[in-house]
Request: fold
Amino acid sequence: MSKKRKHEEHEEHVDESWLIPYADLLTLLLALFIVLYSMNSVDVKKFEDMSRAFSIALSTGSGVLDMPSVVEHGTDPDKSDKDADDMENEQNNEDEGKLSESELQELIKHEEAELEDLKKKIDDYIDKNGLMSDLETKLNMSQLLITISDNALFAPGQATVKPEAKELATAIAKMLQQYPKYDIVVAGHTDDTPVNRAEFRSNWDLSSMRAVRFMDIMLENKDLEPKRFSAIGYGEYHPVAENTSTENKAKNRRVEVSIIHTYVNASNPQQLKVE
Reply:
């Protein structure tokens, strides 16, 4: 009799296995509310991450809270707005710096007239001082180019400007005072004869130092802005003639002073070689 009573009590025991999926559902709902609470504004990236995380969780059984990327990968709305404002301001500044076609043509016309005037002054100086064999000027759409033979400036294999050549650098600098808005590039060139002096490792060194030394004399004029000047050495690698004769080698040994139009990128001197 007692055994029967015990068996009946066991049959009345309620099946509680339904609590497991119910608990999982509550966990998912809790995670959802936590994520929604953490989102102080609608963010597309954050919403996509959250949606992806829930999709994975529901299909694989992984908990949403095991995926911190839902919260960590969201973008900061304030930062996003600031970045957008910065990009807009930058774009506006670029647009303001751009010239219309008519403005650009007017600028080109004005600068061509100025550099033509400067070329005439330099040519007059060349004629007056009998430097026709040592100096040459050429004006194109990019620059006014002054080419000076190395014989007029330096002793062979040296980078010290001759005393009599300092007057030339000083005279060019004085002329440039009247044209302060242009950038100036001083470039040194050599022929392909290997340098044979202890202070120079190569023609790179010699050409660079010659450009710097000539520029130094020009910048003794305190009315010129040093920030508008730069010096560069090309060594033997930009000849104007084949290094097959003494005459051609002499042509390649030179210093070039380029007065650059303001609408040309002076940071890339090789773009200036426009005839």
Residues 101-128 form the longest helix (28 residues).
